[in-house]
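Record 1 of the preview.
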Amino acid sequence: MNHRLVLEELARRKALKDLAGGTITSIYDELYDKQKRFALSKARHLAVLGSRRAGKTEMWPRIAVAKALTTPRSLVRIWSHARQRAKELLWNRIRYLVGRHGLKCKPNEVELSFKFENDAEIRLVGADKDKEIQKKRGDSSLAEIVLESQNFGSLLKPLVEDVIQPSLIDLRGTVYLEGTPGPICAGYWFDITGGNDTGEVWGSLGPREVSMFEVHRWTMLDNPFIPHAREEMAEIKERKGWSDDNPTYLREWLGRWVNDLGSLYYAFDLLRNTYHPGTVQPWGPGWTHVLGWDLGGKDDMAIVIWGWHEKDPTLYEVFSWKKSGALSQEVVEVIEEQERTKNLNIIKKVADTQGGGRMYVDDVMSRYNHVFENAQKNNKYQHVMLMNDDFRTGRVKVRLGSPLQEELIGLMRDPDWNANDPEYKDKPPTEDASCPNHCTDAGLYSHRAAWHFLPRVDPPKKATVYEPDEYEAQAIRDFAKRSDTSWFERTEDQGDDW
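->
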């Protein structure tokens, strides 16, 4: 054994460790007090709930690089709801940080990764579909960072509990979540960060278990790098006409959980527009159904089935489903399983046939015993308004916990749209492009085909027979005698049955 080479390698590693130690200290010194307290916490489950411009995004390059320097051959992953979004937020920030501190690093813009001298790696990854999340199973990581957690909706829980937490076991790593409050006080992100300072969490249906996450909170007013924050916030309030208790102001700029129904694209209310699956069975005798199919190649395939009863003007969600990368055979199998197990009376099936979907749907109809009509996609917002009327009057009920319900509570209106801004005066609101809308689109197509709004007419309890009075009866007999005596005699002989 060449002892000289061994000693040189040990010296090299010690020098790297000493250099890393000094670099890590200087990196953390760039954070302000609340950021630094969060970054140096010993907890393994950490979450930060903040407002806009609170400095969350500037914190993650420093935590990620510092973590990578502490442990050779380790992996630090940074998740966003879209891979491109992760690049927009952090790629240049990490690159500038590495260059400013003189760290040896190999960036790979194709893989969106940074490889350090100690073989540790930072990767930027996307998690907009469950299929993409499941691909990341099996990796061993030192730290996992989730950006803008409020945008993940129903995907956040499987991401954290099924993929991230098992990946951290080997190195006893740390999971970091960050985001602003969502528009509705419900869901996994609310269950983690919607509690009080003691950690007790109020979930969608009441108090829940104490959260395993250590939650930190700060706002733009705590950010010393924006000394004019208070003046800016006052100007925003005045320009938008917000009062101190405006829900959007409380949520976006003060980082407080509050039901902000006005920021949702649909007028959906979690209490008014949901039902427990065990309380209503929207199929069987007297029920009618319609089905909507939203096609997706890179996006999710989605199915929504509505049902209404002949004596009930309420439209109930019977079933909703979505899956990334699903093939036509799987979609048909899902539909046929619902028809078979629930004995559905589906009178119309509509499908999204734009963007090449017409050929795809025609091929499905030629292979399987199903007929789909073209979904009416023109004047989308006008029909959204009709559906919102049904939401406001409680004439639409969605299954609690379904994929459709998860999308409805997370689908926000474009935050830049402002009714008081002349630029948007003649433009209808649009959906926030960062929010999934596959089930909601399928539900909108089929809602347009439903007849639940038609008036109900109760049938007569029994058939009625017209009975002429004595004068009319005598006139009938006289006419019969004049016109056909033999016929009159035949019918007279039949007695009262005639």
